[in-house]
Amino acid sequence: RAQAHVAKAEWERIKSDSSDSTASELYLRKPQLAEKLARYRSAQASVKRAKRNLERTYIKAPYDAIINARTISLGSVVNPGSSFGALSATSVAEVRLPVADSEMQYLANGGVGATVTLNAEFAGKQTSWQAKVVRSEGVIDQVSRMSYLVAQLPTPYANNTKPLRFGSYINATIEGRALDNAIIVPHHLVKDKQIAILNANNTLSFKTLNIVREQDGMVIADQGLQLGEQLITSALEYPSEGMAVKTDEDDEQGEVTQLALKEDTL
Questions:
Q1: For residue 5, what pLDDT band results from cuts at 50, 70 and 90?
Q2: What gap in Å lies between CA 163 and CA 140, rounded to an integer?
Q3: Strands across the sheet containing 218-221
Q4: Which pTM does this prediction carry?
Q5: Counted domains in the chain
Q6: Helix or strand or coil: residue 260?
Q7: Residues 120 and 169 placed together within one structural domain of the fold
Q8: Which of 72, 87, 197, 263 has its Cα between 20 and 30 A from that of 171?
């Protein structure tokens, strides 16, 4: 443009001394100016294209996530549709909980909405988190024959001191349905759903329990015993209904009586 302006100024000076007032485009360097303008605009377009391509090399996930796998590195050549890696969203963690079909009866509403305590080891220490069952997968696994519930834990990586890391092995305890007037007795005291109790006259009777569940060496029932009834915990060789039973208190009382009699004879 500067050269065109100089040429035009020179022409203005020359034409004042000449009868020919028409300057050629070549003299005014218009073709050269048009060529340079074209090159300038092409360079501008190239810069914009390069900036746009550079911006496209920066990939931003539409959600908070961690990188699980990376398949490219600095300097890698990629094509449209190429896989760069794998991400896992960190807004919520989902845990699949296998539940035996026979255990589903102990969960209210099929387990949906139940509180779940998750336990795992983190940094060499046992750590726990509170999650909630949000849904059931609604099918039974063809191999394991298990039903699966899905529990969610919000923002598992929010707590830097104890994050629930994806891929961790965990133990889960699902809150079961409430049982009114529950009776819990050691399993070895129950035989054929019956348990031996001590009557007021020191005789043995059998009570039938309505067993709801057996767990960790204990029997859980909701019917069969009344408040205040005494269980017979000693092993009896041939127990029978109505048989007389001597308690430890009777033995202690007998020893006290015998001792008193001996003292009286002195």
A1: low
A2: 31
A3: 183-186, 218-221, 211-215
A4: 0.59
A5: 3
A6: helix
A7: yes
A8: 87
210 within some domain = yes
- Asked whether residue 63 is domain-assigned, the answer is no
Same domain, 105 and 161: yes
d(CA 123, CA 163): 10
Q: Are 96 and 48 within one domain?
A: no
Mean pLDDT, rounded, of the chain: 80
Does residue 194 belong to any structural domain of this protein? Answer: yes
Q: Give the structural domain span for 245.
A: 183-249
Rounded to an integer, what distance in angstroms lies between the CA atom of residue 256 and that of residue 237? Answer: 28
How far is Cα 248 from Cα 253, in angstroms, rounded to an integer? Answer: 9
Q: Assess if residue 264 is contained within a domain.
A: no
- Can you tell me the distance from the alpha carbon of 119 to that of 168, in angstroms, rounded to the nearest whole number? 10
Average pLDDT estimate for 93-97:
93
Q: In the block, which residue shows the tokens 């255990």?
A: 103
- The whole-angstrom separation of Cα 14 and Cα 265 is 161
Strand-by-strand arrangement of the 171-174 sheet:
92-100, 146-154, 125-140, 115-122, 171-174
Cα-Cα-Cα-Cα torsion 241, 242, 243, 249, nearest 10 degrees, comes to 120
